[in-house]
Amino acid sequence: MTQLMAQGGVMLEQTCPICGLPLFRLKSGDVVCPLHGKVYIVSSDEEAREVEIDETIKRLEYFASLKLRELMDKGDIGEAGDLLGIMEQAERVLRLRLERLSSSSRQAQPPPPPRRKDKEEEEEEEEEA
Of 12, 13, 69, 70, which is least surrounded by CB within 10 A? Predict the structure, then answer.
């Protein structure tokens, strides 16, 4: 814990859900447990699911790239092709999630304020009336 504080980490009120030790926020913004490493603070089951999906995709990407490199070094093209298919499916899932997140953030934004009409537009409206 002293090492985290010496590195500029700030002790938080929250504790690790696994071991109960206090959590620290690093200068990078990451939240870590002194024993378990990086953790995520979520406020709902939905946020927890989102984090779990993100972490699963990251792990899949990492392990798949290691395995793909191993298969390519062996010259096992058939199994490498199967693995590439799995990676493509994971990429589609990630793309759909990103699209859903971007569309929900656009919906959450308030509409832009009404545009003021310039004199020319006002004159045209008066002529039409």
Answer: 13
Question: How far apart, in whole angstroms, are the C-alpha atoms of residue 53 and residue 59?
Answer: 10
CA nearest neighbour of 35 among 17, 62, 60, 58: 17
Its pTM surpasses 0.90: no
Buried-exposed string 11-38: b where 16+ CB fall within 10 A, e elsewhere: eeeeebeeeeeebbbeeeeebbbbeeee
Between CA 89 and CA 17 the distance in angstroms is 32
Q: Measure the CA–CA gap between 89 and 56, rounded to whole angstroms.
A: 13
**Nearest-10 Cα torsion for 17, 18, 21, 24:** -60
Q: By C-alpha distance, which of 97, 93, 31, 37 is closest to 60?
A: 93
* 24: β partners: 11, 32
Reported as a single tens digit per residue, the pLDDT across 48-87 is 888 787 788 788 878 888 888 888 788 877 777 777 787 7
